[in-house]
TrEMBL record:
Keywords: ATP-binding, DNA-binding, Nucleotide-binding, Transcription, Transcription regulation. This is Anaerobic nitric oxide reductase transcription regulator. InterPro entries: AAA+_ATPase, AAA_lid_NorR, GAF, GAF-like_dom_sf, Homeodomain-like_sf, P-loop_NTPase, Sigma_54_int, Sigma_54_int_dom_ATP-bd_1. Gene3D superfamilies: 1.10.8.60, 3.30.450.40, Homeodomain-like, P-loop containing nucleotide triphosphate hydrolases.
Length: 512
């Protein structure tokens, strides 16, 4: 191997491409694709460093679920070695440190990575990320000098540093306090997803966070409404104050008022001391009222008074107390319908829904399923003490073909159950989850389709549900493309999909 001195032109081309008006993700994807081509290796990855974790920003040659994984340094000694190094890290082929990407290079018989180098990325001597290159052939990178690899590191560092700077400037444009900007995106409450629906939701969160308005978050059970509330609070001027949670559906009627507003000693039997309610706990901060639609009408009236005037009375207390609380409410019910039926106060509904937000169900953002699967698989791997855990392509197809009525929560439980089952069946270091370990209930038939004409090519739905679903998707996409003379953008609009998502779906279905 003659080294990279013959590829200076390609490096210059890569640098110029990074200046093109692409989305941030596309820019990073182009970077890792080009660098993988430059080093002629099996896999490459660009990772962002934050809060002792590495977050994949773009990968090439790795399993699709890697993008959703979050690598904690304490669980990945090889990544920790890269983070602690100030320069190029070359791992010997016989290194005993487990590689986080073992078993995650698809379409290869070998499961263990043998050649690996890591490049820590810095901005003003602060670690901001890393580049990794992996190959199944030992010694693959021996022909590349450290000086050549440092050029790549400098190129990637500049690109990532500029992207992070732009992100900080965007947050500053929201006139948020410094503490709120620094508190952004902790791993524990991260919203995973790159679909158009998720990008729109994240944009709405950024818009409303600094406004101080009350927000009504709607969506089906298990879609992540609490994560939305956490995201709003984290980016708000109240970020350094308390975020207090209360599940209204779990409150018995006789204690609900005390939970919300507190009580004084002797107010009722069992009130042996003063108690501070959730509103007082959230003073100058944020109160998240989950399942707000389950509150009784009498409590709704008392809640409305606090929202209108900012004062409350503890149960059994004649004096009022002033509070300054931002309320975020969530429900899986249609409150408009509840208002019409007399089950929810119209004035409270309008007071809560100053800025309504809807969290889309998982079935409307299929492309996020593989990312979420990677996120949960990595968590399960660590919790169960498995050396490596991966999904094969058929398992991913099965996940993407299911409608997930329980949404993200159901996906999480399904994958944890699969991880437990595969560990019990194959007690070895590296494990693959196949479709047989993914137990999903049989889906109820959908509503009848009005005026759905059958054509000669429409066969009866037979066999397993996944195959039938993929066949139906192929027919619909093909028919839509034909109706638009092969125009993918117009077809995507008709189907309610992002154009890039339609291309990826068509590729998975064998239409491209």
């Amino acid at each position: 191997m003659t080294g990279m001195t013959l590829s200076v032109d390609l490096l210059a081309t890569i640098a110029l491409e990074l200046q093109n008006s692409l989305s941030q993700h596309d820019r990073f994807q182009r970077l890792v694709n080009s660098l993988r081509q430059l080093l002629r290796c099996d896999a490459s990855a660009l990772l962002r460093y934050e809060a002792s974790h590495f977050h994949p920003l773009a990968t090439s040659g790795l399993a699709s679920d890697v993008a959703g994984r979050r690598f904690k340094l304490a669980d990945h000694p090889r990544l920790e070695a890269i983070a602690r190094a100030g320069d190029v890290v070359r791992f010997p082929a016989d290194s005993e440190l487990p590689d986080p990407f073992d078993c995650l290079i698809p379409h290869h018989d070998k499961l263990k990575v043998h050649a690996c180098i890591g490049l820590p990325l810095f901005a003003q001597h602060e670690l901001i990320g890393a580049l990794t290159f992996d190959d199944l052939v030992p010694g693959k990178f021996d022909g590349f000098s450290d000086e050549e690899l440092r050029l790549i590191s400098a190129l990637a560092s500049a690109a990532l540093s500029n992207a992070l700077l732009l992100s900080r400037l965007e947050r500053q444009s929201l006139t948020l306090p410094e503490n709120a900007r620094q508190a952004a995106s902790p791993v524990t409450s991260e919203m995973i997803g790159r679909s158009a629906a998720m990008q729109q939701l994240k944009k709405e969160i950024a818009i409303v966070a600094g406004s101080g308005l009350n927000v009504l978050i709607t969506g089906e059970t298990g879609v992540g409404k609490e994560l939305v509330a956490q995201g709003i609070h984290r980016l708000s001027p109240q970020a350094n104050k308390a975020l207090v949670y209360l599940n209204c559906a779990a409150l018995p009627e006789n204690v609900a008022e005390s939970e919300l507003f507190g009580h004084v000693k002797g107010a009722f039997t069992g009130a042996i001391h003063h108690r501070v309610g959730k509103f007082e706990m959230a003073d100058n901060g944020t109160l998240f009222l989950d399942e707000i639609g389950e509150l009784s009408l009498s409590l709704q009236a008392k809640l409305l008074r606090v929202l209108q005037y900012g004062d409350l009375q503890r149960v059994g207390d004649d004096s009022s107390r002033r509070v300054n609380v931002r309320v975020l409410a969530a429900t899986n019910r249609c409150l408009k319908q509840a208002v019409e039926q007399g089950g929810f106060r119209a004035d409270l509904f309008h007071r809560l829904s100053v800025f309504p937000m809807h969290v889309p169900p998982l079935r409307q953002r299929v492309d996020d399923i593989v990312l979420l699967a990677g996120f949960f698989i990595e968590q399960a791997r660590v919790r169960l003490g498995i050396k490596q855990l991966a999904l094969n392509a058929d398992a991913i197809a099965k996940l993407e073909g299911y409608s997930w009525p329980g949404n993200i929560r159901e996906l999480e439980h399904t994958l944890y159950r699969a991880a437990v089952m595969v560990r019990a069946a194959y007690p070895q270091s590296a494990l693959f989850i196949t479709p047989s370990f993914i137990n999903l209930p049989e889906e109820p038939p959908g509503p009848p389709q009005a005026s759905a004409p059958r054509d000669a090519g429409h066969e009866e739905l037979q066999g397993d549900l996944q195959a039938a679903t993929r066949g139906f998707q192929r027919r619909v996409i093909s028919a839509t493309l034909a109706a638009h003379q092969g125009n993918w953008s117009a077809s995507a609009r008709t189907l309610g999909l992002d154009t890039a998502n339609l291309h990826r779906l068509a590729k998975r279905l064998g239409l491209k």
